[in-house]
Design goal:
mainly alpha
Length: 84
Amino acid sequence: MQTLGDAREHFWRVIKMADACEVDLSTALDENRINIDEYADMITSCRGCTQVGKCDRLLSDAPKLEHAPDYCENRDTFAVLRQD
């Protein structure tokens, strides 16, 4: 069983990936497109990711992304929020 990563680090990682994918999570929360439980689930999903190093390198090299990478645990959520 894999240990979950640090919650604070993954909170910021989710924010960075959202920004790179041009998704405003604060607005999504304000507009009820996601709720606080779904937001927390995004962070928990990220905490279980096995590609953290790859993700960090991608985010440092590419400030904007057309979509989250295939290995991103929140890829589908970011895609839906970007469409809204």
